[in-house]
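Exam review. A common question shows you a sequence with its structure tokens and asks you to describe the fold in words. Practice with the pair below. Do the first one on your own.
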Amino acid sequence: MLMSRIGQKKTVLLSLLVTFASLLLPVFGDSYMLMLISFSLLGIGNALMQTSLNPLLSNIVRGDRLASSLTFGQFVKAIASFLAPYIAMWGATQAIPSFDLGWRILFPVYMIVAVVAILLLNATQIEEEKDSARKRVTVTYNSLGIINYCSFSTGSKSSDNAKSEKFVGFAGHIYKADSGAAKVTGQMVNYTYRMLGCGENMFHGAKLTILLTTLTVFFGVILSIFLALGKISKNIIISKICSAYIFFFRGTPLLIQMFVIYFAIPGIFGFAWKDMFASADTEAVYMGAFLAALIAFSLNCGAYCAEIVRAAIQSIDKGQYEAAKALGLTYGQTMTRVIIPQSVRRMIPPICNEFVMILKDVSLVFAISLMDITTISKSIMTNELSYLVFVPALVIYLIITAFFTFLFNKIEARFSIYE
């Protein structure tokens, strides 16, 4: 409503002015009521900015540059969130002149940034898209097999003359879904359909989450076997290298590892992940981001699974090694034919747990604009202001987790038949 009346640029300027006001208040004191009003205004300004900045950016940047610009914005946001506590500590220790404001000197510092942003945005000429006088009808049809959802809408949601009708089909009957339980049911069907990635390729929704998790664990387990054998190797150099690798990837945040692989490495070596695929492919950006995420997750998973594999191998009784040696088996034959097959059963429960952890960690791919379950649910919540979207998201995650837990339990029972 607000953006359609005053425009996207003025909405962003309004959010910056509200933010400026919130940062100005603490200069006059630090009473409870004053700080409460200040942080309330800060939240309002942040909400206005989040809902208006991306639409404004789409009027300035087009095509592939829009996706990369949005991704870079997420990167800057993540880095700013990471640095904020350190900046606050820096200000609290009076590393800069406080002018009798103490730690509150940080508010004028941020206020200057807001003023600069207001001046730069106000001086920038931006042509915003005008609403067409011709009415357009948007039809949405989502089918989940036994239940269907259909909606017809004219105009944008923010316009005053927008009209929409929604219907839910079930068991051969059609029900109006404009209010009550039918409306909630229709929303659940619509949200679930979109989060499952129905009608999209493998790089959307639940399909992306399952594909990335499965490939990550597959490559991670293969890598972990070599890392575990290297760590327990009698060769000191190999053992130290593998130990350092495991320490590095277990000791640094997965999100930062993904940022380094997706942003830093291409910047250092002068390439882009999307360039590895055909330039005519419209999904090249997503495929490149998926490849970078797969590499980051696999390297991280390999480090964690290496400790699982090492513990499983070292849990095998030493008598097995001695028996294999007595039979004249080499070290490699002992590992591949005696030790590792017995270790597999002991690896399965912790690897299943690692699988479930990665399934939830995959939600981090929102930072590089991949459309997994979490990213889609957040997008729906932002666009439609409906918090119900997180209910089907939880159910989808639970169903996926339950299925793979059941599958791993069956595999564990199959391998434990001789124990």
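Now try the second one, then compare your answer with the model answer below.
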Amino acid sequence: MPRIVAPDDVPAHKQQWLWIRWFAYGVINLVRGAVGTGKSTVVGDVVARASSGRKMPGMESDEEADDDRRDRHAVVIVSLEEPVSKIKARLRALGADLNYVRFIEVSPGEEPFDIERHLNYVDEAWMQIADHEAKRNQSVAPEFATQIVGYVLVVDTILRAMPNRDNRSYSATNAALQPLIQLMNQRPNVLAIFLNHLDKQGRDGLGSVGLEALGRSTITCSPDAAAGDFHFIAKITRTAGGDIASMRYETRKTSDGSIVCDWNGEAPVRKSAEQRKAEQISAVRDDILAVLRPKPLRWTDLHAALKTADIVSSPIIQEARGQLNDEEVIGKRRIGSGTESFWVWFCHCPEHNAAVQRLRDEWTQSRSKRRSWRPEDEPDNGKDDEDDEDDDDGPDFRDPPNTPAPLPGGCVVQPLAT
């Protein structure tokens, strides 16, 4: 049954982390990168530290970081590309406590692993680790006892674990991951790490929505040509409560042939073209609202005000305007009909709605006057009129001589309260 809850009765939420700013509990952590960027080694280093109770990279000198080696994480790895023997060797070289690790493997010819239908195997593997720990603690002194403080699921690669690889829409992906999402909501300190490849154009096989929309932490492994190694870039979304960070790492081969990871400290964040464009659009959205709040405006007037302020290019302005329109923060309304009509942009608020209605009423009242005006009544100065409308919102309206302006002063409204 639905129930009403007062804000004071809702407990405060504090995001918990396996690795602060990088891997968050209770959410899907997506690790992406091209082949050869060391995704598996990076994730292997993280889970090796989690299974053995060691501090995460960059936190070794942090006095507030948890350095209690008795606090362990139960790690389950679903590898759909590499043999588990190779992963075991890598984890051993990275210092993992293999007593806190389990693998889920599928033999050739058997039913492939399905993240939606086979999640019970993951839960059973976690319980095996917990049972092993309980038996061990009975045979050691209390000061040497360990405790499981979190549960980690690693899937490499996630695309091969989806039930329907051909349908990568948000609804299909959301349905497939619902059992895992419910498990993370019910049990504390559970996190999922999904690995996926990027192609040469920097795109993954997940589509623009789907897993990206459900992910709360997106981490990208990419080459750093300037530093001569790789850098590990993590973008934590607002839901996970983090920010953008970057840390360099380098993979190397040990004497026994295993690949390990060396961390080289934080690195300056280099924003991609998409990130810079998104920031520009976000800023222009605020500028559009600031210009439009006092009163409804024709698009030509709104665009001119933004260009006068040297905001950014017209495509950025149009994309920001389109986003606000799609979100129904602002809207447009045609005033009049035929070649004498024009478009007015306004905020969705009672004041602007009333102002737009007044414009429509005034246009109707002056309709007969506009019909009586003939183009040959206007003097010909030998120059073509310039149309400064830069989009396809409709024809630009030119006033006949001695007629009131399309936006009379009576339509001015007070700015919206902020």
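Model answer, second protein: Confidence is low (pLDDT under 50) at residues 380-418. The two ends are 36 Å apart (CA to CA). Full marks require stating both points clearly.
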